[in-house]
Known about the structure:
By secondary structure, the protein is an all-alpha fold. It has helices at residues 5-25, 33-41, 48-81, 93-107, 113-136, 144-166, 170-181, 189-216, 220-225, 230-252, 258-270, 274-299, 307-330.
Amino acid sequence: MPKNFIKVFILSMILLGICVLASLAFGSRTIGWNELMNGLFHPDVQTHGANVVRQRIARTVFCIMCGAALGVSGALMQSVTRNPIADPSILGVNTGAALFVVCGISFFSIGTASQYIWFALAGAIITAIFVFGIGSMGSGGATPLKLVLAGAATSAALSSLVMAVMIPRSNVMDQFRFWQVGSVGSGNWDSISIFLPFLIVGMLIALLTAPALNAIALGDEVATGLGVRTGTLRLIAAFAGVVLCGAATALAGPIGFIGLLATHVIRLLIGPDLRYIIPMSALTGAIILMISDVCGRLLGSPGELEVGVVTAFIGAPILILITMKAKMRAL
Length: 331
């Protein structure tokens, strides 16, 4: 166990608790402490503030689930590709999910969360396979640099296809544009029940593959010598990452940078052991997404600023710093 793990875990749980209370209390209307307690622990109290708190509980739970899924997805993708800046949004997986969703809206008239999730998963899986295939071409196989370039090129091409499908159809544009920004505001108990099986499956696979993924971090030759089937392991771990990302993207829209930020923060604090990085990335991803959601509500009051905008605003400069640091190390 990493020496800082217990301290980081306790601090993270405290932060998560604070974020949960903030998510329940702040919004278009700020809820006082008494109303907050009534909404949580006194179902017989039917004041407006208490009812608002009860409505926000589903959004908060949904936000935790999305943040956890994206955090673990980022950890898996970074491990599978051995790329420190791998992330669903950077590798084009989010855009692939978006393309299939907009095609589903345009050509199959889908409009419910249960329909979105299957189209988004199909798009995410196909895009991940395509990016990995392109990145594996040429000498050296799937290097980190080639995967990022393949992801960036694929994302740009798919974004153009999204616009080509959407622009001639004004009704599709109205339905899609709210989803495209990325928001947890639509989270309810129905979407939570749809999301939960995918979250459980993805998390279990991630935790079960973590010890073997540690071996891959030492290099494919060493991992093979230790009895790890590197190709099969990468396929299984990548599948779990894509399922987590695709399900979250289907229900909340393409929210970027959560996996990148959560995994880097945890790796900096507790080290490279994926047996601890994966569960802590889930916890950290939930915290980051909830902080972003609360900030979006406060900044956009009396409305709200979508959480996808806030995470992009925070994540883009951090990505630049990480890239610059990696470049300096390479030199």
